[in-house]
Write a structure and sequence with these properties.
heterodimer; A: 402 residues; alpha/beta; Peroxisomal Thiolase, Chain A, domain 1; 2 domains; two-stranded antiparallel sheet; globular; B: 86 residues; mainly alpha; Non-ribosomal Peptide Synthetase Peptidyl Carrier Protein, Chain A; 4 helices; transferase (chain A); Nodulation protein E (chain A); PKS_Beta-ketoAc_synthase_dom (chain A); Beta-ketoacyl_synthase (chain A); Ketoacyl_synth_N (chain A)
Chain lengths: 402, 86
């Protein structure tokens, strides 16, 4: 089995237009959540989200490119460009054929669908743009990253709701670990902040209109975000031989299914995924220094997740730092695990522990160290990132300092 | 059909009961409605009476809309209908 390391990272999200801005915002406990701005937002009852503001796609992409790039593809391309540039890899020859792209997304080109449904149903038009299908398809982001950077190996999209990115990165990890690929571009992207996207979520009555307050007794639901984060997973000896800067080692990964309820989480399923990731990495519970929680800010998730962490880690659960960065960037649904991986890398690489902001009131059912409201500086050797999706699909990744 | 009868019918359907088996004093748990059953009930009430129900599944008891019993739901919906026509 090969060892797998991360040699590049990139992002665009509500906290920043790159990794440095994002980590700086987390370290300063900044909140990227604000008023939603898009057509018909006045007809929504949920009016807040972690929206990327001050972003003009036409400054970044040509008109011809934008005909093919839904926002979820734009975000993925921007993040992938940063990650690949940092890694220093150039994909040609044999390396190109043994490198690929696996990205997570839940909604894919949802904004393209939303705009075009509006056009044919509401505006009564009988014709849509010829590239609506290649723009909305869920593999659009993966394919454009592949085409832009000449990646000719395994390329596909993973869609498991809120766990999409973690499942995608888990696949990329196993692909490099098994020797099937030398390097994989992986992470996730989401752009659900449009009228139809939010309207659908409103129906579930689990969204907050007051803010994202994970683990706080006053929490009243989740707040959506948008954006992407993309990483370069590379075989360790390959990275070492070329003298690449290694950000962290991907030490382990596991997935599980609750097989119980389509929306309610389960302690057992979450616990099995956490324990599985540790087993896969050959780690003990006491090795863990930081957990980036799924921490959605819903009543159900947060108490279930705390119980699962305690079941998996025993007494060490009270010694480990646990934070939900969704309090700052919102819930990016299929892209969320990727943006949260940035916080895990910052913990491993720089000892920057991102906080859980908006935590004002203790909940007896959530009694761990949530790094409340202020970031911490503390050296961490092992971090794990939790993702627990609707549908009961869980995916946990473990990172280790190298 | 009265507001009361319609709400009893909606709740009975969600709880998989006959309307005659639903009494006004019954609570949500007694009816066997889980949080998603409650969300569907609220949706059906909104669609039937053309009202907007303030309800958050994260903490049903904290909402302005009292869902503690069948009677409290009827009272709350009558209030929303009255507010709409006022």
């Amino acid at each position: 089995m090969k060892r797998v390391v991360i040699t590049g990272q990139g992002t665009i999200n509500a906290l920043g237009a790159d990794v440095a801005q994002t980590i700086d915002a987390m370290a300063n406990a900044q909140c990227g959540i604000g008023a939603l701005e898009f057509p018909n937002a006045d007809r929504l009852s949920i009016k807040i989200g972690g929206q990327i503001k001050n972003f003009d796609a036409s400054e970044r992409f040509s008109r011809q490119q934008l005909n093919f790039y839904d926002p979820f593809t734009q975000f993925a391309l921007i993040a992938a460009e940063q990650a690949i540039s940092q890694s220093g890899l150039v994909f040609d020859g044999e390396l190109a054929e043994f490198s690929g792209v696996i990205l997570g997304t839940a909604g894919g080109g949802l904004q393209t669908q939303d705009e075009n449904y509006r056009s044919v149903y509401e505006d009564g038009k009988n014709r849509v743009h010829p590239f609506v299908v290649p723009r909305l398809m869920n593999n659009s982001a993966v394919s454009h990253v592949s085409m832009t950077h000449g990646l000719k190996g395994p390329c596909f999209t993973v869609s498991t709701a809120c766990a999409s990115s973690n499942h995608a990165m888990g696949q990329a990890f196993q692909m490099v670990q098994s020797g099937a690929a030398k390097a994989m571009i992986t992470g996730g992207s989401e752009s659900m902040l449009c009228f139809g996207g939010i309207k659908a979520w409103e129906g579930l009555r689990v969204m907050s209109n007051t803010g994202c307050r994970p683990f706080c007794a006053s929490r009243d639901g989740m707040v959506q975000g948008e954006g992407a984060a993309v990483f370069v997973f590379e075989e360790y000896e390959h990275a070492r031989a070329r003298g690449a800067e290694i950000l962290a080692e991907v030490a382990g990964f596991a997935m599980s299914s609750d097989a119980s309820d389509i929306v309610m989480p389960s302690v057992g399923g979450a616990r099995r995924a956490i324990q599985g990731a540790l087993n896969s990495a050959g780690l003990n519970p006491t090795d863990i220094g930081y957990i980036n929680a799924h921490g959605t800010g819903t009543a159900a998730n947060d108490k279930t997740e705390c119980a699962a962490i305690k079941d998996a880690l025993g007494d060490h659960a009270y010694d480990v730092m646990v934070s939900s960065t969704k309090s700052m960037h919102g819930h990016l649904i299929g892209g969320t695990g990727a943006v949260e991986m940035l916080a895990c890398i910052a913990a491993i690489k720089d000892g920057v522990i991102a906080p859980t902001i908006n935590l004002a009131e203790a909940d007896p059912e959530c009694d761990l160290d949530f790094v409340a409201n202020e970031a911490r500086q503390k050296s961490v050797d092992v971090a794990i990132s939790n993702a627990f999706a609707f549908g009961g699909l869980n995916a946990v990744i473990a990172l280790r300092k190298i | 059909m009265s507001v009361q009868d319609k709400i009893v019918e909606i709740i009975a359907e969600q709880a998989v009961l006959e309307p005659s088996d639903v009494s006004l004093s019954m609570g949500i748990e007694e009816l066997g409605l889980d949080s998603m059953g409650l969300v569907e009930t609220v949706f059906a009430i909104e669609e039937n009476f053309d009202v907007s129900v303030p309800f958050n599944a994260n903490d049903p008891s904290a909402s302005d809309f009292d869902v503690s019993s069948v009677q409290s739901i009827i009272t709350a919906v009558e209030g929303l209908i009255a507010a709409k026509s006022a």
